[in-house]
Amino acid sequence: MKNLTQLRQLGLFDARVPRYTSYPPATQFKGLAPDLPHAWLRAVPQGAQISLYVHVPFCRRLCWFCACRTQGTSTMSPVAGYVQTLLAELELLRDALPQGVTLSRLHWGGGTPTLLDPQMIARLAGAIMDAFPLCHDGEFSVEIDPSEIDAARMRALARAGMTRASIGVQDFDPLIQQAIGREQSFQATAEAVRLIRDHGIASLNTDILYGLPHQTPARMSDTVQKLLALSPDRVALYGYAHVPWMSKRQVMIPDDALPGNEARLDLFDTARALFQADGFDQIGIDHFARPDDRLAVAARAGRLRRNFQGYTDDQAQILLGLGASSIARLPQGYVQNAPATQAYTAAIRDGRLPHARGHAFTAEDHWRGRMIEALMCDFEIDALEFVLDHGMTAADLKALFAPIAARFGEAVQVGPSGLRITETGRPLTRMIANALDAYACAPTGHSPAV
Questions:
Q1: Rounded to whole angstroms, how far apart are CA atoms 108 and 322?
Q2: Rounded to two decimals, what is the model's pTM?
């Protein structure tokens, strides 16, 4: 299966499929009845543990590779106004939920959350913790841009209770950084890590990308070696998705400098080998963690989950979103806030939660989504789980798995106990998951399968 000819024949290098951080993918979201999200929020049990994601869309610089919902700013005035809106949304959310709700996870993403000044950080974090206290073993993580952090802001984050820092590295090579509009020296990143450690933040995760312009195995190796010198606990190794028809700033990236799909696989394998040689466990399809990291512990225990932030050990069944474009997942379905900051702000000013679109789960969504999550996290589907939890029969599962076995051959093993992706079939995981996707998602906007 590792043979490139076999992978090519199975379509790995041609497929564009979702990353399956949700099911159905966000491309399937549509308008919801206005009262539906409110009913879902009211149904949250009293005293429930939830996760909360806070989106800060502002950046001082707009990196060309990024396809996230962000906007540039040269002044702090719109940032201050946005924080005020976040606080107002928080109050609306607090009013919609029952008493006693606590947080198992709090994550600030963007954008650039560290664009906030110390006073804004303290005010926002304080208001969140007042509304929804962090539980005793909860985690508060923040995405940190090394070019937008200093001792005062780090001190404010530490005092607010941050327990985990996340740094986007992408690549340390100057040529590659210039090609993606993200100049960030190793020295600047190392200084940010020093600040994090000096303020008592023990947990650090980092992101790097493969498939960037001008990347070669030698350059990837150099970046990984530099990254390992910073001693992260956890690394996400994401494949760059070149979608300039969706993210207009990506037109700045030279198409002819991008590695082909087979070269992308080589880049991934180069990085993976180095992480594993340094003692990291591979987690799912694109994460690596030290064996004592919570993510690695969860993976070994079969408690790994997947959500919009990627892989997580968080067991909360409810993820709520604060800020423009953020997405909530409740037992009944997904709800996304208005993506445009102006529309999001207008809704809050009108005294209403800024829900714009989403998806109400069907019974089939529940079992298909769980199967896809199981493949993405554990590379296997346990038949007994679906017999007990979803009322499926052995005949149901056999009929569902037979076409997958016929299509992917030795990449999967199918039997009475369920379906398992073999070690050599793991590069095909997203494609195998896609075979369970009932929505037949159009490929536009989805990332390469490798």
A1: 9
A2: 0.95
